[in-house]
Specification:
This protein is mainly alpha-helical. The chain is about 80% helix and about 0% strand.
Length: about 280
């Protein structure tokens, strides 16, 4: 795939994102009023739905890039994004139905951890062409996601309130590990989309850390940690837009090259006919 002339290293970009997110977290620790949350079910639904749509769009771009069965790391990445998208859409649906509560939040935590574990696997999975059947990876990935979801949903249900903090910390740590691995992979293989996914993941990891340190009062409340989630979605959006632009540029360059070859062939044929006529 053609990436275009503008190429930037992934690690500095992700490091800057991590520094910015850490600065926001330190501000929350230093300024008590920044820890406040407010009830905003509509904003929560918009956040969850927008994130899910961007995750699904990213999956579509990965499928267009490499298909459904080309590379193991892309397959794990697609599985992780799908799980996170389904979790976000489920949360949005429950809030719209008016049945969202702290009890249902355990399912969201289980789904988020399942998706982040798959992202972490993707960050360190082989980037070579598959040597096993695609359905084998999809099958193991689905089983892993279901096992993590079930285990941690039960664990979160048995430990309400502050007992759920370790689960949020686990989600944050898994996201940070995934971001480091994705950034290294993007650097090694020069894949800008992976770079932006790593940026989104690092913002999401710090946001989950904020949730763990200063949990919102209500289940459908929003607070400063959600600003980091918005930054994560914006990073993912930047990657999606960049990938679409690279696709348009690649198609334009291919069309120009095809037209040049056609003109060259016509000139060559015309010149040959003129020579034959002169003879």
């Amino acid at each position: 795939m053609e990436h275009g002339p503008a190429r930037r290293p992934a690690l500095p970009t992700v490091s800057l994102a991590a520094a910015g997110a850490a600065a926001v977290s330190l501000a929350v620790v230093a300024v008590p009023w920044l820890r406040m949350s407010f009830e905003a079910p509509g904003l929560r639904v918009a956040l969850e739905t927008g994130g899910a749509l961007l995750a699904v769009t990213t999956v579509g771009l990965l499928v267009r890039q490499c298909g459904l069965r080309s590379r193991a790391d892309h397959m794990w990445l697609m599985l992780g994004l799908v799980v996170l998208a389904v979790t976000s859409l489920g949360v949005a649906g429950v809030i719209v139905a008016g049945t969202w509560s702290a009890t249902e939040a355990r399912y969201a935590m289980g789904g988020n951890l399942a998706g982040t574990v798959l992202l972490a696997v993707a960050a360190f999975a082989p980037a070579t062409r598959l040597r096993v059947r695609a359905r084998t990876i999809y099958g193991w990935g689905t089983l892993l996601a279901l096992a993590v979801f079930a285990a941690f949903a039960v664990l979160a249900g048995a430990a309400p309130g502050s007992g759920r903090v370790p689960i949020q910390v686990a989600i944050a740590a898994t996201l940070i590990v995934a971001a480091v691995g994705l950034a290294r992979r993007a650097n090694q293989r020069d894949e800008p989309l992976l770079r932006w996914i790593a940026v989104a993941v690092i913002f999401g990891g710090i946001a989950k850390l904020d949730y763990a340190l200063f949990p919102p009062i209500g289940a459908d409340n929003v607070h400063l940690g959600d600003a980091l989630r918005i930054a994560a979605w914006l990073g993912l959006l930047a990657g999606v837009i960049g990938e679409l632009r690279r696709g348009v540029r690649a198609r334009s360059e291919a069309a120009v090259a095809l037209e040049r070859r056609r003109l060259a062939r016509e000139l060559h044929d015309g010149g040959a006919q003129e020579l034959a006529f002169i003879r």
